[in-house]
Amino acid sequence: MRHLILILSLAVSQTVFAGSLKAADSDLVLMEAKVYLASGETEKARHLTEEVLTTQANNDEARLVLSQIIDREIAQEKEAAPTESIEELSAKDKQIEVERWLERAKSLASFHQYEQAILAAEKVFLYNPHHQRASRLVDEIQRQALNEGTNGANSLNQSAREEAKERIKGYHAQAIQWLTEKRYGGVRLALDKILLLDPANEEAFQLKKQMRKLLEHEKGKAL
């Protein structure tokens, strides 16, 4: 593994030094990023992947690799996370976590990973339920995602469309289940995910209307 990394590192360093990445060059850089990712070196993998995305923002493979890197980073953080609960963290430690999640959300959004960007921004609310910067960032990411979805819908390839359909089905099932359990926060989050993938999804709009009616009914009963 280390021998392969060394060979790829030499090739990639020559490629990057030569100037902007070409398609064949980006394949080589991404290959090294995947090797680093497989060995758990996520920081190096992220650096190389972002190098590709800086010059090729719509590189689907690079965006997929970045998503995999972020998943691995989150898993690593969970493994290394302290055993104390959020409530036991000091105010300083909570602020550190808030800033980390905000930066992660911005980074994800800059590379068009909108769904994960919103999830990262919403992590802030675990540490500060009324964090205004996080709220504004979520709104900003949603607008960016909807604009790109409207302008770039036709550029999706068939496999991406099929993957999106499957994810929408899963989110829809979650929303219905949580609605029956009156877990309205989860319903809202699942529906927002659907609308990020499909801004015109009629089923999501109908479920939102149904949830509003249930909330109004429960509010009326409480009066």
Folded structure, characterized:
With 223 residues, the chain is mainly alpha-helical. It has a domain at 1-81. The chain is built from ten helices and no strands. It is globular. Residues 2-8, 10-19 and 150-157 have low confidence and may be disordered.
Question: Can you describe this structure in just a few lines?
Answer:
The protein is mostly helical and 223 residues long. The chain is built from ten helices and no strands. The radius of gyration is 20 Å and the shape is globular.
Shape designation: globular
Low-confidence stretches: 2-8, 10-19, 150-157
Number of helices: 10
Please give the radius of gyration in angstroms. Answer: 20 Å
The mean pLDDT is: 75
H/E topology pattern: HHHHHHHHHH
Record field, number of beta strands: 0
Helix content: over 70%
Beta content comes to: under 5%
Beginning-to-end CA distance, first to last residue: 66 Å
Category by helix and strand content: mainly alpha
| Sheet of most strands | none
